[in-house]
Amino acid sequence: MSQTPVDPKSLTTVTVGIGALSIEEVVAVARYGAAVAIDPEALDGIAATRERVDELAQDPTPVYGISTGFGALARRHIPEQMRAQLQLSLVRSHAAGSGPEVEEEVIRALMLLRLSTLCTGRTGVRPVVAQTYCDVLNAGITPVVREYGSLGCSGDLAPLSHCALALLGEGQVRVKGGQVQDSASALAEAGIAPLQLREKEGLALINGTDGMLGQLCLAIVDLREAAKLADVATALTVEGLLGTLVVFADDLQQLRPHPGQADSAANILQVAQGSEILAGALEEFKKNQVQDAYSVRCAPQVAGGFRDTLAHTELVAGRELASAVDNPVVTKDGRVVSNGNFHGAPVAYALDFLAVVTADLASISERRTDRFLDPARNRGLNAFLADDPGVDSGHMIAQYTQAGIVSELKRLANPASADSIPSSAMQEDHVSMGWAAARKLRKAVDGLQRVLAIEILTAARAVDMREGTPATGTGAVIERLRQEVPGPGTDRFLSPEIEATVALVQDGSLLAAVEGAIGKLR
C-alpha cells in the first residue's frame, strides 16, 4: 500500500484550481484548519464559462437549471424576472436536514470539495460565488448541518443546501467551534457580503457528492494509521503470547503476492525484531506449541486484505477528487448538458467496502485480545491477566467492551449502497445512500481505533508480566503507554485507562513512538 506522501498537519495553505486536490489537502483544511486560496487561472475559467450561462439565460428555449424548474418540475419554464427567486427558493427548500449536528471537519471537507468543483469552471457560477465560498472557509464559519437529508443522489442535497444557505446570510453557523449564531451576523463580523444568487448558481452549490467524498478522505487518512497500528498490536500480542515470528517471513508472503499482506508481515517483523522475550521462549514454542492460532498466524492475511481494500478506495477517491460533479454541466465547448455524474454509487461502494474490512480487522484484534485472558491459551499468564485472580478481574471486562464494539461494527458493515428509496415523484428513482454509508463508516473507524487500543493495552500488560526485555519496537509502544497508564497491578478504575489509550491511538502518539524508535512502517 502506498505511503502517505504528505502529513496533512504540515500543510498551512491549500490552493484550489483546475487540478485535483489530494486526500491530504482535504484533511489539512477540514481537520487542521489550513488556509484556502484560489488559483487566479481558475477564476478566469469560471468567468469565461459564466459568459455562456448568461447567453443561454437570454435564449427563449428552456435550459435545465438556468430557465426551468428542478427534478420532477423541470418541464416548467421560468421567466427571467423569477429566476433569482428560483435559485433562492431551491436552496431554502432543500436545506431540510434533521437530527444531530454533523461534525465540523466533515462540513469543512464538504465545503472545500464543493469549492473545488466550482473552480473547475464547469458549473457556470460567477467568480464571486467561488470567492465567497473560499472566504467563508478561511473565516472559520461552519454551517450547522443535520445528520439526515441526503440520499446520495442528486448528490448530498440537504447538507450542501445548508452550506449554501449560510453563504446567503441565512441559517445557522458556528465560527471556529463557537456557539451557534445566525449566518448574517457571522458574515458581517468577518466582513463578507452575503451572496445574491443568479441563474444556475443555487443548483451548482448543492448538486454534488462532496459530503460522502469528504468523509471518505477523512476515513482513508485515519485507516492508514489504523492499518499500521493493527500490525503494532499484532507484534505486541505475538510477544505477549510467546508466539513465533517465523510465519511472517517475506518469502512466505511472496507465495501469495498480495501487496498489503507483505507490508503487514514486514511491519510485524520490524516491530517485534530483537525481542529477548521471544528468543527465550523459542525452544519451548517449537517443542510444545508448534504453531499459533489463526488470529495471530493469519494476521497479515486479514490486515493485508484491509490494506488492499483501502488502496482501492484511495483510487476511487483520487478519481472523484479530479471530477466536476454537477448537473447540468457546462462543457468546454459551451454546451449545457444534463448528466448523471451526481450519482454517488462509486463513492458509496468504496465507503461500504471499508466498513466491511474495518469490522473484520477489529474482529481479529478482539480474538487476539481474548487469548490473553484464558489461562488455557495464554501460555502461563494469570487468568484475565489479573494480579490475584478471583480477587481481581484484570482485563475481563475490557474484552467485553471490545466484543460490544465488534458486534456493533458487524451491524455497521451492512451495506447502505444496497438500498434505494425513490424520491422526487419517481424522477429520482434510484439513489446511492452514499451519505449514510459515510456516516456509518465514521462510527466504524472510531470503533476500530477503540478495539485496537484495548488490544494494545492488554498486550502491553502481558508483555510486562513476562520475564525478559521486549523488542525495541514493542518496548517503545509500552514506554509511551506507561506515561499515561500504569503497568500491571491490582484492579483499578479501568475506563480512564482505556480512554487514555484510545487518545494515544487517535492522536498518533503510539505510532509516532514506535516509528521514532525503529523507523517508518509500511
TrEMBL record:
<keyword id="KW-0456">Lyase</keyword>
<dbReference type="InterPro" id="IPR022313">
    <property type="entry name" value="Phe/His_NH3-lyase_AS"/>
</dbReference>
<dbReference type="GO" id="GO:0019557">
    <property type="term" value="P:L-histidine catabolic process to glutamate and formate"/>
</dbReference>
<comment type="pathway">
    <text>Amino-acid degradation; L-histidine degradation into L-glutamate; N-formimidoyl-L-glutamate from L-histidine: step 1/3.</text>
</comment>
<dbReference type="GO" id="GO:0019556">
    <property type="term" value="P:L-histidine catabolic process to glutamate and formamide"/>
</dbReference>
<dbReference type="InterPro" id="IPR001106">
    <property type="entry name" value="Aromatic_Lyase"/>
</dbReference>
<dbReference type="GO" id="GO:0004397">
    <property type="term" value="F:histidine ammonia-lyase activity"/>
</dbReference>
<comment type="similarity">
    <text>Belongs to the PAL/histidase family.</text>
</comment>
<dbReference type="Pfam" id="PF00221">
    <property type="entry name" value="Lyase_aromatic"/>
</dbReference>
<keyword id="KW-0369">Histidine metabolism</keyword>
<dbReference type="InterPro" id="IPR024083">
    <property type="entry name" value="Fumarase/histidase_N"/>
</dbReference>
<dbReference type="InterPro" id="IPR008948">
    <property type="entry name" value="L-Aspartase-like"/>
</dbReference>
<dbReference type="GO" id="GO:0005737">
    <property type="term" value="C:cytoplasm"/>
</dbReference>
<dbReference type="InterPro" id="IPR005921">
    <property type="entry name" value="HutH"/>
</dbReference>
<protein>
    <recommendedName>
        <fullName>Histidine ammonia-lyase</fullName>
        <ecNumber>4.3.1.3</ecNumber>
    </recommendedName>
</protein>
